[in-house]
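Structure tokens please, single chain.
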Amino acid sequence: MTQAPADAATPVVSAFYDRFPYPGDPLQDGPPPGYNWRWCVDAAYAACTGAVAPRSADGAPLRVLDAGCGTGVSTDYLAHLNPGAEILAVDISPGTLQVARERLRRSGGHEQAQVRIENRSLLELENEDPFDYINSVGVLHHLRQPEAGLKALAALLKPGALLHLFLYADGGRWEIHRTQRALTAMGVGTGDEGLRLGRQLLAELPEHNRLRRHHEQRWAIDCAADANFADMYLHPQETSYSLERLMAFVASADLEFAGFSNSQVWDPARLLQGELLERAQALPPLQQWQL
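Here you go.
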């Protein structure tokens, strides 16, 4: 008797990413380009707490989980930015993990950290020891039951450890949602035909059309790779969050919200001045973010 998948969406999502291994970032020889402090445990901990990240008294290495690693872009940064760490990178798509393994081989990531790359669900890691840092970027919103995924990750955190999440936001995906619904209504599918017709739609809409204009101005470069375009417009399972639902989501796993990594975007001084700014700054943080 075949065991049912841990999440109802797992088979279709796994097959989708086998077709379109994501992210579609090119492989390179040597370390990944640039510096992303969100994937450096010491920098992330300092940004969230203002303190130095604690270390084990027995000198044990940092334990890091990349929960839904895809083609290994995040795993590669985690390896190079946390030398000597023990890193477990898991994903439900065997196809993406083939790319991840090649990425880490070519970059030298295995020489920087102790990396395990495994075909596993983040919902099935109960036997793992707890982690100092968990990275889960663009993953939980593709589960049928995201709350179960968050609770599973929360249970794997050491006391006081950090969970770095990236989740879709309602406010940032208005045009994307409209485009998705249009393609779904026309039955283009989630495979190669959907990719062809999706690109055709955004190329043939009138130049002044809001969906085409937003795509060209905001997402065209990011979506140059077919896998990235498919992930954005053709994905068979996703959800997104308002601020209220985000806070409820975090609370559902008994976690404390530490803040946004792009805090400058949420500063009312970016948009307001004078009396209006004073009024905005007098609001509690959640109301400031809503504003």
